[in-house]
Amino acid sequence: MRKVLRRFRSLPIRSRLALLVAAAVAFGVAAVSVTCWFIVQGKLYQQVDTQLGSSGFRPKDDQVAALLTACPKEVSDSSDGSLPKSYYLQVVQSDGRTCVFTNSAGVVKATAEDKEMAADPDLRLRTFHNSTDADGNNVRVMTTPVFVGFGPAAQPYPDVALVVGVSLKDTEKTLNDLALILLLVSGIGVLGAGAAGLAVARAGLRPVDKLTDAVEHVARTEDLSIRIPVEDESEDEIARLSRSFNSMTASLANSRELQQQLIADAGHELRTPLTSLRTNIELLTRSEETGRPIPEADRKALLASVKAQMTELAALIGDLQTLSRSDAGTPADRVQVVSLQDTVEAALRRARLRGPELTITANVDPWFVRAEPSALERAIVNILDNAVKFSPEGGTVDVTLKDGELTVRDHGPGIPADELPHVFDRFWRSPSARALPGSGLGLSIVARTVQQAGGDVALSPAEGGGTVATIRLPGAPTPPPALD
User: Fold this and answer.
1) Where would you tag: which of 14, 21, 212, 358 has the fewest CB atoms within 10 A of its CB?
2) Chosen domain end from 326, 346, 381
3) Residue 382 belongs to a domain
């Protein structure tokens, strides 16, 4: 059985579906055919029983006596022409001896029912059952008591039962013909069901074949632009699978494009500090090799430049690592319930250290969100760093947190309207800010972190000059109850 199941599971899906449909139809057809055959058999036997019951054969007393007297010869010399010679006519004694009438079609073998009727005759009873004649042919038999007298005074003949039978040859022929017809019809039905199941399976699995071809094409060529056509109104499983595949390939293509763009942008941004580092180091090396020392002031300037470029490289690599982790998504085990109020206050302490000449006002209310604590703090620090960086000396930065909305307003030069759509792009820097330190990844990191926490971030011009950064995060003013 296990081998059969393994062989079945190794078949293609369309073959399995066709076999299952054929098996289901075969089971249904077989059940209907067998039921039909037994119903017809019962009806035909009922007709034969009615025929036997209405035969009206009743031997006379002297005929029965004469028959019993001649019984050792197994044949009666008496004659009775009330029934055609196709009937079996005989009496059976309780010891099983059979006495046959002259016009009987043959001798029917006595059964237990016949002997019981002869041993205990009852005028109110008669039985119908199958038996065989001396040649082995099947016979339908009616067994009744033998009457002595007529009318109410009639009595059963003691120790004797009358057997009237008819051949079942015609009935069996009808049943055999019916069985053959049912078998042929069932076979045609099963074959037709198998063919229909195969056709339906092929039609139903055609989208799966297209999906398989598409997946194989992607695996072979790494071409993520392929799409499977789906009807807009279709909502079946295949359509959902096709839409999911199209969405997956689109996401993969977008992810690959972002990765390639990140690599290209990172390479471009790394080239400048690396070139500067290489130039400065070559100058220092050439000075050592030629024995011509560089003036002390120039040497200190070169070393300061090398240190600054290394610091910029370290910051750039750190931002790239942070951004790559953001692109990969935040693991579920790092997401926690975070007090946004505490996170903002920690970021404010760092911002005040970086801009001691600025006045930073804060009005923060309690708010709890679900996010990665370190990433969320890094995002808020980046927002405050930008405000500190672009604020004029002695300026003011206003920070407000109310109902999950954090606003940071500076009084710097602001951002031109045509540059606002690009502020969250990777490595994008305003032409007016390219002389300032930074990698151009800070706001991109902010946008990724806030989006992964389910919120949104925006920059807009502030009234009276400056910029307003707004972060909205879903949450609640109180922490959720701890789980036991």
Assistant:
1) 212
2) 326
3) yes
pTM here is 0.47
Task: Look at the block and give the residue holding tokens 């035909």.
Answer: 44
Number of domains in the chain: 4
Note the pLDDT tens digit of each residue in 416-474.
777 777 676 665 555 555 445 555 566 777 888 888 888 898 888 888 788 888 999 99
- 161: phi then psi, degrees, rounded to nearest 5: -135, 145
**Statement to judge: residues 159 and 271 lie in one domain:** no
Residue 484 has pLDDT above 50, yes or no: no
pLDDT (tens digit per residue) in 179-200: 999 889 888 888 888 787 777 7
- Which of 326, 354, 376 is the last residue before a domain boundary? 326
CA dihedral 384, 390, 396, 402 (to 10 degrees): -30
User: What contacts 26, CB < 8 A, 6 or more positions away?
Assistant: 186, 190, 193
The answer to whether the CB of 117 falls within 8 A of the CB of 161 is yes
Q: Are residues 364 and 383 in the same domain?
A: yes
What is the span of the domain harbouring residue 149?
A: 55-167
Handedness of CA 335, 338, 340, 345 (dihedral sign): negative
Query: Which of 226-230, 273-277, 331-335 has the lowest average pLDDT?
Result: 331-335
Instruction: Report the percentage of the chain scoring pLDDT > 90.
Output: 4
DSSP class per residue in 159-206: EEEEEEEEE-HHHHHHHHHHHHHHHHHHHHHHHHHHHHHHHHHHHHHH
Phi, psi of 148 (to 5 degrees): -120, 115
Asked if 179 and 186 count as a contact pair (C-beta separation under 8 A), the reply is no
Tokens representing 104 are 């009987």
Which two three-digit tokens encode residue 367? 């708010």
Structural domain contains residue 376: yes
Give the position of tokens 């804060």: 362
Q: Which two tokens stand for residue 267?
A: 């390479």
SS3 (DSSP) at 54: coil
- CA neighbor of 412 nearest in space, from 392, 398, 429: 392
The pair phi, psi for residue 409, each rounded to 5°, is -115, 125
- In this structure, the strands spanning 98-100 and 87-93 are antiparallel
Buried b (16+ CB within 10 A) or exposed e, 408-441: bbbbbebbeeebeeebbebbebeeebeeeebbbb
